[in-house]
Design brief:
Layout: H1 9-13, H2 20-23, H3 57-67, E1 74-77, H4 79-91, E2 98-101, H5 108-115, E3 119-122, H6 133-139, E4 144-150, H7 162-171, E5 177-181, E6 203-208, E7 221-224, H8 227-236, H9 244-253, H10 256-281, E8 286-289, E9 296-301, H11 304-313, E10 319-320, E11 330-334, H12 338-359
Parallel strand pairs: 2-3, 2-4, 4-5, 5-6
Antiparallel strand pairs: 1-7, 6-7, 8-9, 9-11, 10-11
Helix pairs in contact: 4-5, 10-12
The protein binds pyridoxal-5'-phosphate.
Pyridoxal-5'-phosphate binds near residues 81, 106, 208 and 210.
C-alpha cells in the first residue's frame, strides 16, 4: 500500500485546474492567458504582466540542491504554512480524519486542522520537552492521517533525536504522513531528516526561507517528500502561488553570495544564543534558560508578566509563551543583533537592580 492511498479519495480522483502557463511555457507571441501584452510601469524587464511559472524551474533546482533532494521531491509554497494547509486538506476528510501534535508546539498545525474540521490528537511533550514516542504510537486513532513533529521545536527550542523520527515514520508507514517541521534546523547541529525520505515514503520535511534566510516577507517555504506526495498536493494548490518578485528575492538570497552571508549570520546567531543564555542565567529574575537549537531562547522568569512589561515599556517586544502547557511563566526571546541583545540584557539587569533594592 502506498501512503497516497490514505489521502482523501476526492483529492486522488481530482483533475486539477490546468492553467495556461502549465499548458504552454514560452513562445515569441503569448496569446493564451489573457494577460496584458504590455509590461506595467516600472517593470524593469521583470515581465510582471505575465503569470509566473507555477513552480519556477530555476528556484526548484536551487532549493533541491540546497536541501539535498530531487526537484520532483520538492513543493514550493507561500511559506511552509501553505504546505501544512495543503497536507491537511489533501489527507483529512472533514469530520472523519485527524492529525496528531505534541504540544507545546507551533500553532499552525492545529489551526489548519480546525479549519478542515479534522480531529486533533494531542500527545504532550514530557517534562524535559522530549516527544513521548511510545505514548504517541499507542494513542493514535486509526483515522490519524498526519503527525506533525517540530524539530527544533517552537517554542521549546530542542531537536528530536533522529532515531525517534525514524521509529515513528517506520511504525506509521502504512497509516500516516509524518511531517518534520525544520523551520529552525539551520541553527542546529543536527542533520536534516530530508535524507530519510528515500527510506520512508510517508515522511515529509518542511523547510522555509523565513528564518535563517531572512525572507519572512517573501513567503517562500517548501515541503520535501516523495514525488507522488508532491504531485498529489500540486493538484489542490493555487495555480500561480509564487509571485515573481518573491521568486527573484529567493534566488538572490540563495545564490553563492547570499549563501555565504547566511552562513555567517547563522554563526553569529549561534554565538549570540550562547552569550545571551549565559548572561540571562546570571540575572536573579531568570529561573531557567532552556537549551535551544533555534534562533530563540525560551526563558522561565520569576514574574514573566512584569518582565514583559518592563521590556515593552522600553520598546522591546518579546513573546509571552506562558499560555502553552509546560511553559507557564515563560517568555521567548528571538535572537537579535548583538546590539539588540545587549539592550534586552540591559533592561532586564536594570529591572533586577530595582528588584534587589526593593527587597533589601
Ligand atoms: C516560523 C515557523 C514556520 C515558518 O512558516 P513560514 O510559513 O515558512 O514563514 C514554520 N514552522 C515553525 C515551527 C515556525 O516557527
Amino acid at each position: 500500500m502506498s501512503i497516497i492511498d490514505r489521502a482523501r479519495p476526492q483529492v486522488r480522483a481530482l483533475t486539477p485546474y490546468s492553467s495556461a502557463r502549465m499548458e504552454a511555457g514560452d513562445a515569441a507571441i503569448m496569446l493564451n492567458a489573457n494577460e496584458s501584452p504590455w509590461a506595467p510601469p516600472g517593470d524593469a524587464g521583470r515581465q510582471l504582466n505575465r503569470y509566473p511559472q507555477p513552480q519556477p524551474q530555476v528556484l526548484r533546482e536551487r532549493l533541491a540542491m540546497l536541501y539535498g533532494v530531487e526537484p520532483t521531491e520538492l513543493l514550493i509554497g507561500r511559506g511552509s504554512d501553505e504546505a501544512i494547509d495543503l497536507l491537511v486538506r489533501a489527507f483529512c476528510t472533514p469530520g472523519v480524519d485527524g492529525i496528531a501534535i505534541c504540544p507545546p508546539t507551533f500553532g499552525m498545525y492545529a489551526v489548519c486542522a480546525a479549519t478542515q474540521d479534522a480531529a486533533i490528537t494531542q500527545v504532550p511533550l514530557r517534562d524535559d520537552f522530549s516527544v513521548d514516542v511510545e505514548a504517541l504510537l499507542s494513542t493514535l486513532p486509526e483515522t490519524t492521517k498526519l503527525v506533525f513533529l517540530c524539530s527544533p521545536n517552537n517554542p521549546t527550542g530542542g531537536c528530536m533525536p533522529r532515531a525517534d523520527i525514524e521509529r515513528i515514520a517506520g511504525a506509521l508507514s502504512e497509516r500516516a504522513m509524518v511531517i518534520v517541521d525544520e523551520a529552525y534546523i539551520e541553527f542546529a547541529e543536527a542533520e536534516s531528516a530530508a535524507t530519510l525520505i528515500a527510506r520512508y515514503p510517508n515522511l515529509g520535511v518542511l523547510r522555509t526561507l523565513s528564518k535563517a534566510w531572512a525572507l519572512a516577507g517573501a513567503r517562500v517555504g517548501v515541503l520535501l517528500a516523495d514525488a507522488p506526495v508532491i504531485a498529489l498536493l500540486r493538484k489542490i494548490m493555487a495555480p500561480y502561488p509564487l509571485p515573481t518578485p518573491c521568486v527573484e528575492a529567493a534566488l538572490v538570497a540563495t545564490d553563492a553570495d547570499g549563501e555565504a552571508l547566511t552562513r555567517e549570520r547563522i554563526a553569529t546567531v549561534r554565538a549570540e544564543r550562547r552569550r545571551l543564555a549565559d548572561a540571562l542565567r546570571q540575572l536573579p529574575q531568570v529561573l531557567d534558560v532552556y537549551p535551544s537549537d533555534a534562533n530563540f531562547l525560551t526563558v522561565r522568569l520569576a514574574d514573566a508578566k512584569a518582565s514583559y512589561q518592563q521590556l515593552a515599556a522600553q520598546g522591546v517586544v518579546v513573546r509571552d509563551v506562558g499560555r502553552y502547557p509546560l511553559l507557564a511563566g515563560c517568555l521567548r526571546f528571538s535572537i537579535g543583533t548583538p546590539q539588540e541583545n545587549n539592550r534586552l540584557l540591559a533592561i532586564l539587569a536594570e529591572a533586577a537592580t530595582g528588584l534587589e533594592e526593593r527587597t533589601a
